[in-house]
Design goal:
By secondary structure, this protein is an alpha+beta fold. Helix content is 48%, strand content 16%. The chain contains ten helices and ten strands. α5 runs antiparallel to α6 and α9 runs antiparallel to α10 (265-280).
Length: 282
């Protein structure tokens, strides 16, 4: 069923595809950080992503996402990008099926290959500043939820300072089964809203922490990646370990803010579990 959409999005579609008579049929999709819409048209299928200014998520910027995807146009690593206007990002629809959790684990060598291909791209000029990102989560949170454990963890990392990058590259920073689509025998990454430049070890640390990989699967991912990138695997493991406390606080902060913004009990539960992991990193 189609639905009435934002006139700004209609205008963007008509500007990019002036030959077609209508903008198409619109289908809202479930999403965590904003409005995402699938658009079915006579000759193509599009994806529109909106950024809600009233509920900001640190690190998410549709205009930055647009510019990064434009830089990746020739790489065949990301969906086609058609335009940005009025907080709307217009992309090509990526056909295929997202991986299941079981398929994701079985595909870890191929995931490592996809990450290695991405990390060979030139940096985009949009650095991921982890300390500022964590401080922004603190600032956006409700004052009554800024507990002592959060402040202690934040100050501890501020004193320590971010690890010096092992290798600097463009990162995706949201790699999980739902964001990996298999199409024509290839794996394609989607949902690039957190993409920015940073340490490749941070990307791997995020994949391991975000997907709850056990020791065996973590080592498999690291070893495959290290071989592809000609990096000493033991050096890479040590660098990943340096980023783990930063990732633990980032995940807890993300779940906390999403719970505060949405009121969904699932995020409250995930936040409580994540704060426990932050305590365990002390």
């Amino acid at each position: 069923m189609s639905y009435s959409t934002d006139p700004a999005l209609d205008k963007l579609i008509c500007q990019r595809f002036p030959a077609e008579q209508s903008a198409g049929s619109f289908f809202p999709l479930a999403g965590l950080t904003g409005l995402t819409t699938k658009i079915e048209r006579e000759n193509s299928t599009l994806l529109a992503r909106y950024q809600r200014k009233a509920q900001p998520i640190p690190g998410v910027d549709r205009h930055r996402e647009y510019r990064i995807l434009r830089k990746l146009t020739a790489s065949n690593l990301a969906p086609a990008v058609y335009g940005y206007a009025d907080n709307w990002l217009l992309l090509g629809w990526q056909p295929g099926a997202a991986l299941s959790e079981k398929a994701f684990l079985a595909a870890l060598p191929r995931v490592a290959h996809s990450l290695a291909s991405l990390h060979r791209q030139a940096p985009t000029g949009y650095p991921l500043q982890m300390q500022k990102l964590l401080e922004r989560y603190w600032q956006l949170s409700q004052p009554e939820r800024r507990h002592c454990g959060w402040l202690r963890a934040l100050r501890r990392l501020q004193r320590k300072g971010e690890p010096k990058p092992l290798r600097y590259a463009l990162l995706h920073m949201d790699v999980h089964p739902g964001n990996i689509v298999q199409c024509d025998g290839r794996l394609r990454l989607i949902d690039w809203e957190y993409a920015s430049d940073g340490d490749v070890a941070l990307e791997l640390a995020a994949v391991i922490a975000g997907n709850g990989l056990d020791k065996e699967n973590s080592l498999a991912l690291i070893n495959h990646y290290a071989a592809l990138q000609h990096i000493d695997a033991s050096l890479l493991r040590r660098q990943i370990a340096r980023w783990q406390p930063w990732l633990a606080l980032l995940m807890a902060s993300w779940y906390e803010l999403r719970w505060q913004q949405s009121g969904e009990k699932t995020f409250f539960t995930l936040a409580a579990q994540a704060w426990q992991r932050v305590d365990d990193k002390r």
